[in-house]
Design brief:
- The chain is elongated and about 85 Å long.
- The longest helix is centred in the C-terminal third of the chain and has 33 residues, at 228-260.
- The protein is mainly α and 365 residues long.
- α12 runs parallel beside α14 (349-360).
- The protein has helices at residues 2-32, 40-49, 56-80, 85-101, 106-126, 131-150, 158-183, 187-197, 200-219, 228-260, 267-291, 297-316, 325-344, 349-360.
Length: 365
């Protein structure tokens, strides 16, 4: 019951959005346009809303193109051939073949085929006007796009800011759990952290989806398009976060190995991980304040730089004490994660490598 209630809470707004959009599309097609059988208008709205945010404009365009291709194939078939099984086969083969040849997506191909089949087998024998189907696609797609933007009408950047904060919070939380497992030399806790680390890919994927959705919303709003540059920067940050997640996953795996040795974890290692966690938190503040257009974004970015380099400096001191291999591996992952964080907050690539090398004690190029 708890799971069902949670699913209902999470899906309540999308369900309401879909039901309202489909109903409005039906009313427009039936009452304003006068379509006697406006089934495809609400269907088109539901299909578009079923697509992930950020892909709905493309989905609408593909659907309209697919319907147009299906109408053309059906029209040619009805004019040239008598209705029958052979006609249905020819229309479907022609429509699907053309779509595949043009490299259309599966969505476009399916909707083109469905449109052609409907018009040949249902609409044409009744003498219905074929263009109604095309108009329905336009109505359903337009209503779906409008409905999807109502949720973010006041602040299209808000969902992206919230998701970015959540992503960085998940990373910081994982580093905190690794720190606790190492401090207590708790192998069971370390294994639990490793299992949790393997789920981190999902948080980066959700951030990418939020970036696409925000970009779509901003492109549909002329006055908000000035923020597109900031969204593109977040998209670049996603790539670096993806690398950081992989590094932290390897770090968690080596933490399991270290706890399995039942040796005391060097306190410097815990200090380095805590500094890295602070860098992640500061990077989250830098990203969110930059999206909000606040002037203190650079201050948070500088704090992220300092904390990341401090983590590398602390970890590098362990390399002078002939530590066990898992410690060496963790030090390497701290260094790699710091590089990804510094790149994520906009530090020049050459400058990042030089700063990290100096922190490790290596001569800079």
């Amino acid at each position: 019951m708890r799971s069902a209630v949670d699913r209902l809470r999470g899906g309540a707004m999308p369900a309401l959005e879909a039901a309202a959009a489909a109903t409005i599309a039906w009313l427009i097609a039936a009452e304003l346009i006068g379509h006697p059988d406006p089934v495809f208008a609400p269907s088109a709205a539901l299909i578009v809303l079923g697509e992930a945010r950020g892909q709905r404009v493309r989905q609408t365009v593909e659907m309209v193109l697919g319907v147009a291709a299906g109408i053309l194939a059906a029209d040619l078939a009805v004019r040239s051939l008598e209705l029958g099984t052979g006609t249905v086969f020819v229309v479907l083969l022609l429509t699907i073949g053309v779509m595949v040849t043009l490299g259309a997506s599966s969505t476009l191909t399916v909707h083109a085929a469905i449109s052609a089949l409907y018009l040949v087998a249902v609409a044409a024998p009744k003498g219905s006007m074929m263009p109604f189907r095309f108009v329905d696609a336009l109505i359903g797609g337009a209503v779906a796009l409008a409905a999807s933007q109502l949720m973010v009408a006041r602040d299209p950047l808000a969902p992206l800011v919230a998701q970015a904060r959540q992503t960085f919070a998940d990373l910081a939380d994982l580093l905190g759990r690794i720190d606790e497992a190492l401090a207590g030399c708790d192998e069971e806790a370390a294994r639990a952290v490793l299992d949790r680390a393997r789920e981190l890919d999902g948080c980066v994927d959700r951030l990418r989806t939020a970036v696409q959705a925000c970009g779509e919303s901003l492109r549909l709003r002329v006055r908000k398009r000035r923020h597109l540059g900031q969204v593109e920067e977040v998209e670049a940050t996603c790539r670096q976060l993806d690398y950081a997640v992989r590094n932290i996953q390897v770090l968690a795996r080596n933490a399991v190995t270290l706890t399995r040795l039942h040796t005391r974890t060097p306190p410097e290692l815990n200090d380095a991980i805590r500094a890295l966690r602070e860098a992640v938190r500061a990077a989250a503040d830098a990203l969110s304040t930059d999206l909000r257009g606040r002037r203190d974004a650079d201050r948070y970015a500088d704090r992220a730089d300092d904390a990341a380099l401090e983590a590398v400096r602390i970890a590098a001191t362990l390399l002078r004490t002939d530590p066990p291999l898992p410690v060496v591996m963790i030090v390497g992952q701290i260094r790699a994660t710091a590089i990804d964080l510094l790149r994520g907050v906009g530090v020049d690539d050459a400058a990042v490598l030089g700063q990290v090398d100096q922190a490790v004690g290596m001569p800079s190029a």
